[in-house]
Specification:
Layout: E1 3-11, E2 17-24, E3 29-33, H1 40-55, H2 63-72, H3 80-100, H4 105-108, E4 117-125, H5 128-140, E5 145-150, E6 172-173, E7 178-181, H6 183-201, E8 206-210, H7 217-227, E9 234-236, H8 246-253, E10 258-260, H9 271-275, E11 281-282, H10 291-303, E12 308-309, H11 319-331, E13 338-339, H12 345-350, E14 356-358, E15 361-363, H13 376-379, E16 387-388, E17 391-394, E18 399-400
Parallel strand pairs: 4-5, 4-13, 5-8, 7-17, 8-9, 9-10, 10-11, 11-12
Antiparallel strand pairs: 1-2, 2-3, 4-15, 6-16, 14-15, 17-18
The structure holds 2-keto-3-deoxygluconate (KDG) and magnesium ion (MG).
Length: 402
Amino acid sequence: MKITKASVSITSPGRNFVTLKIETDEGIYGLGDGTLNGRELAVAAYLTEHVAPCLIGRDPFQTEDIWQYLYRGAYWRRGPVSMSAIAAVDVALWDIKGKALNTPVYNLLGGRSRDGVLVYAHANGADIDKALDDVARHIDLGYLAVRAQSGIPGLASTYGVPKGGQPYEPAEKGLPKESLWSTEKYLRHVPKLFAKLRDQCGEEVHLLHDCHHRLTPIEAARLGKDLEPYRLFWLEDPTPAELQENFRLIRQHTTTPLAVGEVFNSIWDAQDLIRSQWIDYIRMSIVHAGGLTHMKKVADFAALYNVRTGCHGATDLSPVTMAAALHFGLAVHNFGIQEHMPHTTETDAVFPHHYSFKGGYMHPGDAPGLGVDLDEALAAKYPYQRAYLPINRKLDGTLFDW
Ligand code: KDG
Ligand code: MG
């Protein structure tokens, strides 16, 4: 089998998605996601101008060699744009391989390690009472694990809490919006949210929280300690992780489990975190970390150090990535949990898929390949729209982490 064509499409059924379609001389095609929120056209150009011409004529079964060709062959390594482009190719090739062998991708990754993939939902509210209601709503929908975020008194907006009852979507049209942040107000508020939540939910429900990289290590250590009585499943992105040693300090002070990695692109971003056992869950996504080929290596390395997976799965990762993450989650032994933010009905219509949710678990389905398709005619009705993630500043105007 030979690759005959590789083409990129960008569609915006509510938000932007970059999709790579790789076609072969045997009529089988595969899909890969290359969406990088707020920087979509950079990946699209990288794929179209620099990657697609090198794929023509290659054997799509050679996933390892093609991965190395694109990674080592570029000379320039890592980075979100190139690793998302490599992921788009890699996932499309696994899709082709599954279709050609008439088997779901999970069978190519080791087969089923479990019956279903535990997922967590996003619940939020403008204040604690509204957040409590939204957590209860998600439990009623069948979720066994729920991430909770709430508005903070004295701050007009914060990460994870939508305005006006809309589903949460951080990228907005126009130039980046700016919001104001106070760590002090946040640290006073979050323990109150989880005290009430644990009381309302009982012991069984898994509760999670995302700090979204906004604390220093010592602040994160204090929050982890304050949250210990409420037994979180994880505290996510407590601090930025360019300096992996940040997590040593947090770890020394708290038994609250720690998760990080949604902005990582390669195992090298997490090497010390994993080897030193400073984290419990590695959250890299299939799309931003080089695809299934690289993520399988990340999972195998993490398994040596008791670190489990918890792949990023926000709505800015397309249904192609959701499908890939579910095949991966069904197969890898040290799977922990998978994030699940349902896409809009428009997005689901553009990407018909076989994955499903039942009783707190998702399943990728048993269709050959990934089990997800692209309705190209429908996709063409939603042209690209420039959108940016917001910018965050402290109350005194200092630019801060969003
Ligand atoms: O594009 C950025 C989002 O994917 C990110 O803000 C979502 O933190 C996030 C999460 O945990 O889903
Ligand atoms: Mg996050």
